[in-house]
Amino acid sequence: MMSTQVCFLFFIGNLFSLRLSLCQELQREADTNQSLKHIPPGDLSGNHALNLSHKLFQFIQSDIKNMTQLKVLDAVLKKHVGPLSTVQKLDLSGNGLYTDMIDYLLRDAPALTNLSLNENSITKLANSTFSGCQSLRNIDLHNNVILEIEEGTFDSLLNLTELDLSVNSISCITDFNLFQLRSLNLSKNSMNSFQTIDSDQEFELLYLDLKENKMHYFPVLPRWNKIIYLDLSRNQLHSLNSTGPDDELQYLRDIEELTLTPLYSSKTHQLLPRLLYLDLSYNQFKAVPSDFFTSLVALDTLNISNNCLESFLVDTDSPLNALKTLDLSFNNLQNLTFKEKTLLALETLYLQGNILSILDPEIFNLPQITNLHLQSNELSVCDPLQNQTSDCVSLYSIRTLRYLYMSENKLTFLPAHAFIGSPLLILDISLNPNMKISEQALAGLERTLTHLYLRGNHLKKLNISLSALHSLKVLDLPDNQLDGLFLGERATAIEILNLQNNNVKVLDAGTVLALKKTLKTLSLASNPLICCENMHLISLVQQAHVDIDSAMCQYTKDVGYGEINLRDVKSEHCETLNSKVLLIAMISVLVLGLMIVLLVAIKLCHSKSHRFSNSYKA
Ligand SMILES: *[C@@H]1O[C@H](CO)[C@@H](O)[C@H](O)[C@H]1NC(C)=O
Ligand SMILES: *[C@@H]1O[C@H](CO)[C@@H](O)[C@H](O)[C@H]1NC(C)=O
Ligand SMILES: *[C@@H]1O[C@H](CO)[C@@H](O)[C@H](O)[C@H]1NC(C)=O
Ligand SMILES: *[C@@H]1O[C@H](CO)[C@@H](O)[C@H](O)[C@H]1NC(C)=O
Ligand SMILES: *[C@@H]1O[C@H](CO)[C@@H](O)[C@H](O)[C@H]1NC(C)=O
Ligand SMILES: *[C@@H]1O[C@H](CO)[C@@H](O)[C@H](O)[C@H]1NC(C)=O
Ligand SMILES: *[C@@H]1O[C@H](CO)[C@@H](O)[C@H](O)[C@H]1NC(C)=O
Ligand SMILES: *[C@@H]1O[C@H](CO)[C@@H](O)[C@H](O)[C@H]1NC(C)=O
Ligand SMILES: *[C@@H]1O[C@H](CO)[C@@H](O)[C@H](O)[C@H]1NC(C)=O
Ligand SMILES: *[C@@H]1O[C@H](CO)[C@@H](O)[C@H](O)[C@H]1NC(C)=O
Ligand SMILES: *[C@@H]1O[C@H](CO)[C@@H](O)[C@H](O)[C@H]1NC(C)=O
Ligand SMILES: *[C@@H]1O[C@H](CO)[C@@H](O)[C@H](O)[C@H]1NC(C)=O
């Protein structure tokens, strides 16, 4: 039995009247016959699968408002399609159908295995609804307004394995007893409680989706279960206890005479030995008792992000040794403790958005850790040469570490050999303004590092020798104060270079040469580039294969400056300068010429006067 009666504040009665006169039926039949002429033939051919999604609606050219229309339609369908008795797959989604209509349509569909009733207006499922279709395996009721499921509604459907009730208005499930069901989707309802009947029989349930509900307590799951997937994200859980304090328990007892087994009443945690995926994100957990994990021996992914965790402990008794992904991001963690020989399979650890200032060195005994997300914390990096262990995190000699994200921390100094022995592919140390970087900070990463992110660090100068990073493909340096970039002249592997919003006037010709072979994307906007001193760069970006942003450069105009897109720079933009030189040269030549003329003239005058005086003399 699966019923939702207990938690109802109000009861929805039979809202829909079925009593209709025959005349009305006939009138509608005529209209419907008319509209059915437009049914595309494909929909009716072969009666094992009938797809009428968004179609009934269309035929009648408005919502199917009442049973009259429906009965007529049904009669017409029978005429054209034959009875539903041989249909195996039926899609009636998006037809504005409500409760009584489906009861009516499904009253005789014994071969039906897959039924889709998505996006209708069903408010209630009665225990007679599916009595005419006992072969159902898959029922999709996604996106209706189901408030009530009568006791026994699914009980006779012995082959039912998938039930999608997501996006409805169900507020609780009591006495869940669908032993054969494999997948139950209750996401986006108003669930505040899920209770399985007390039984020693094993349930086949594999997937249970309770995402986006109003659960305060952990669901009461089958004692013997095979659940592999449990999504409880976006609820109001603050405890992993299955039931609340005794008064709430008493309340539940009062209203449904719940007989709680010792297992539940003692509030020990549920056993979930097959569970692979557990999502508890977006709840209100302040702590998670480590003994909760004791039975989770197969767990692969655990997500407790976006809660209020202040500390987190993995204990030797519940080592989570199958866990590959642990997401503890966006909590209030100051402290994290992983005991020895725990988390032996952990590959990816998300810790971003906490207030961690230290990390227990034990954390890095994780033998499989490859991916560390430490952004938005308060960490600094230890210097491997000094035996510094307090107030910093040691990131060297982690032989499996490939991806390290440390943006937005309080890094003030990146010491030499900070990551030596950790074969990083990706390093993000963006948004640590005014961080000093030792020349040898990236020593040891020469062969491995492919992505380096240093955005928004107020860097005036890049100390590190980039040309040594032979594998570097992505170099991300926007929002700094760099006045240039020096890559040496040997070809690099860089494909993507971002220097947006820096202080670059001239990009070194050697650097341009070094980038020439591999560069695919270049971002240089918001730099005071000078057109005529960047002819190497301009010729590079004007080659078709380099994708460049809208970077502008400055050139001298007759009076003052002009700005032009790097792509559009032409030789004449630099001629202004040349013509000035020409002008000066011409003026000089002219002045020189004038002077010569003047000199000659003076000389001539002089000789004339001389002659004159001569003649005078004469
Ligand atoms: C509707 O169509 C069916 C089958 O074509 C026919 O038997 C029935 O008389 C029609 N009804 C009306 C009211 O035209
Ligand atoms: C029915 O058709 C709709 C759209 O035409 C499609 O999205 C849906 O998957 C189909 N249903 C089945 C059971 O084939
Ligand atoms: C059913 O719908 C038709 C057309 O929308 C309308 O004419 C008729 O009065 C309705 N019947 C009832 C009982 O509401
Ligand atoms: C349930 O499935 C089994 C195996 O496929 C089949 O033999 C049996 O007829 C089905 N039961 C119903 C009620 O359809
Ligand atoms: C029919 O239901 C079965 C069992 O739930 C499922 O495996 C299958 O994919 C469904 N087929 C269609 C066409 O939806
Ligand atoms: C069907 O539901 C009614 C009302 O909820 C209930 O009285 C009746 O016992 C149920 N029948 C079965 C077979 O569960
Ligand atoms: C449950 O339904 C929701 C909404 O329809 C869907 O996004 C989600 O993927 C489903 N969950 C599972 C486990 O299939
Ligand atoms: C959960 O259960 C334990 C043990 O019964 C109890 O100590 C604790 O207070 C409970 N937590 C909440 C939040 O009810
Ligand atoms: C954990 O949940 C959050 C929020 O639902 C989601 O953004 C994040 O991707 C999840 N983490 C993993 C590892 O799936
Ligand atoms: C971290 O946790 C341990 C044990 O849980 C405790 O002894 C220590 O004081 C905590 N440190 C901080 C900084 O909270
Ligand atoms: C660091 O500590 C180790 C052992 O703890 C010691 O052998 C070494 O000399 C120390 N190095 C420095 C620079 O203090
Ligand atoms: C450059 O490196 C030296 C020594 O490695 C260091 O003292 C200096 O602060 C660094 N400068 C910058 C701007 O990072």
Automatic annotation (TrEMBL):
The chain crosses the membrane at residues 581-602. It holds the Pfam family LRR_8. Keywords: Leucine-rich repeat, Membrane, Repeat, Signal, Transmembrane, Transmembrane helix. SMART domains: LRR_SD22, LRR_TYP. PANTHER family: LEUCINE RICH REPEAT FAMILY PROTEIN, LEUCINE-RICH REPEAT-CONTAINING 32. This is Leucine-rich repeat-containing protein 32. It comes from the Eukaryota. Residues 1-23 form the signal peptide. It comes from Silurus meridionalis.
